[in-house]
Design goal:
By secondary structure, the protein is mostly beta strands. Helix content is 2%, strand content 66%. The strands form 3 sheets. The protein has a 19-stranded antiparallel β-sheet that branches. A 4-stranded mixed β-sheet has the order 14-15-19-18.
Length: 504
């Protein structure tokens, strides 16, 4: 790579505004309570990104060309959520409780006229780029205007029952419940392939006169096998039970199990714009679906020799499922990494076994000192890897890498300064912080993904070696107002797995 292209530097300008509102109602009668909670949030963001020097494989043979990148991205988000819930107590001493909720949410995302350009600069400071004959996929990274819309409709509910019983004259607690949730997503996108912008100043590159003749209209995505339009559905049904047993005076054992049945499907399709037709034609693309039944046990042992001290040991199994975009096999442009990224229909869920040991000391209300150690085993972790085959435009793709071990230690404290007797106001000041040292190792393995066939041994991507957090909190006006100043820092971490032929 030429020296003047072998760096990444960009300038970003971001405007963001947010408006939110809540409306809650509650009604109590006897040992019953009904609530209705509603939330509305809208977010508007505009982002301009300028990169003064860009390495682009398309111009690798012409290193004398100075390439600048410009991106304009407008984002509109709207969220509406409503929850109707109830709590009912019954039985002897009202020790049996039933709580339930039903909920509905809509989440709309609109990305109107996202513009992305890689332009060469001449001696007069004007900009040009010729893209004759390129496909829609390549244009997403070099010269395109894209319109995207996505809408999620989420419905769900939960019913939980808890009660107590006596065993050997010791009170035990049992809980159980069911949960269901469905999600339907409709995502559409349309793009303009700009085949050329010839010798124009920056403030005129969007003028119609700046375009070379010939504009292609199509769906955003992989022009060969799929598109950026997709319908997706998920469905989750879960049932759980949990029992808290007291053993002797100082020990509690909380154990339980959760069964989850999860279905996920994504149907990627293309909209073909035929000449002289206003309504596009539906063209099937790539369909992916999966069903998984997960058995998730857990056990937590707590030994409390004093009211202020706990020793904990815990084991649990959890699952991380891929995002819908991770399995939707179409190509999109990532403005964080400035590269094309794609989904993988072969991606699997990540199964995690968690082991934890923890010591806790609570000197007084609102204070804590703790030290813990953790160990995690991960099967099929989801990471993003650079594609490794030549003549492939997609920069990275979601993959399942090898079996992973993550281990570490963590310390936490929260302490009020009320011990400083000469300054009465210091009792409203609290210091807090936590630190973690983490190590991870991902085993080498073969990979079942387009354009990626092998993952070598490495650190888990996105996982730093250390995390530091700290701050100070001050309460005022009879603790009706609180101000917090915080600091956080993380160590370096791997963002994407390397392997691209363009990485030096």
């Amino acid at each position: 790579i030429p020296e003047f292209l072998n760096f990444s530097e960009n300038t970003r300008y971001l405007y963001s505004s947010e408006f939110a509102g809540v409306l809650n109602f509650a009604y109590s009668f006897g040992a019953n309570k009904l609530t209705l909670k509603s939330l509305y949030t809208t977010v508007f963001r505009k982002n301009f990104i300028k990169r003064d020097s860009v390495f682009n494989p398309a111009v690798f043979d012409f290193p004398e060309l100075g390439i600048s990148g410009f991106a304009y991205r407008t984002e509109q988000r709207g969220l509406i959520n409503s929850i109707l819930a109830g709590e009912h107590k019954t039985g002897r001493n009202k020790e049996t409780q039933l709580d339930w909720n039903i909920n509905v949410s809509t989440n709309n995302i609109n990305l109107p006229d996202t513009r992305n350009f890689l332009l060469s600069i001449n001696e007069k400071g004007n900009y040009s780029f010729i893209n004759r004959g390129i496909g829609l996929e390549q244009s997403l990274a070099t010269s395109s205007r894209v319109w995207n819309k996505s809408k999620d409709l989420i419905t769900g509910g939960a019913f939980n029952l808890s009660s107590v019983f006596n065993l050997f004259n010791v009170k035990q607690v049992v809980k159980g419940g069911i949960l269901f949730q469905t999600r339907r997503r409709v995502s559409t996108g349309t793009g303009l392939v700009l085949e050329g912008i010839n010798n124009f100043p920056l403030d005129s590159i969007l003028a119609p006169s700046a375009y070379l003749r010939g504009v292609t209209i199509g769906s955003v995505g992989n022009a060969l096998e799929s598109s950026g339009n997709y319908n997706a559905n998920t469905s989750l049904q879960a049932v759980y039970e949990s029992i808290e047993n007291r053993i002797g005076k100082y020990t509690r054992v909380i154990w339980g199990v959760r069964f989850e049945n999860y279905q996920q499907s994504v149907n990627v399709f293309n909209l073909s714009f035929d000449p002289n037709f206003i309504t596009p034609e539906y063209v099937p693309g790539v369909f992916a679906s999966r069903t998984a039944l997960d058995f998730l046990p857990s056990v937590n042992i707590i030994y409390s020799p004093l009211n202020t001290i706990n020793f904990r040991g815990a084991f649990s199994q959890t699952v991380i499922r891929p995002d819908l975009q991770d399995i939707a096999q179409y190509t999109r442009y990532d403005f964080q990494t400035f590269q094309l990224t794609g989904g993988n229909v072969n991606i699997k869920s990540t199964n995690i076994s968690n082991y934890d040991l923890k010591f806790e000391w609570f000197p007084s209300a609102g204070e804590i000192f703790s030290l813990s150690a953790f160990y995690k085993e991960m099967e099929n972790p989801i990471e993003y890897a650079q594609t490794t085959q030549e003549n492939v435009l997609v920069g990275n793709i979601a993959i399942n890498s090898g079996n992973t071990v993550v281990k570490g230690v963590e310390a936490e404290f929260r302490k009020r300064l009320n011990f400083i007797s000469f300054a009465k106001w210091m009792e409203n000041v609290t210091l807090f912080g936590n630190a973690a040292l983490i190590r991870s190792r991902v085993a080498a393995t073969a990979v079942d993904a387009p354009f990626v066939s092998f993952s070598p041994e490495h650190r888990l991507s996105g996982q730093p070696d250390y995390i530091l957090n700290g701050g100070i909190s001050i309460a005022a006006f009879k603790k009706s107002f609180e101000a917090t100043l915080s600091f956080n820092r993380t160590g370096d971490y791997v963002d994407d797995l390397g392997g691209s032929i363009f990485v030096p």
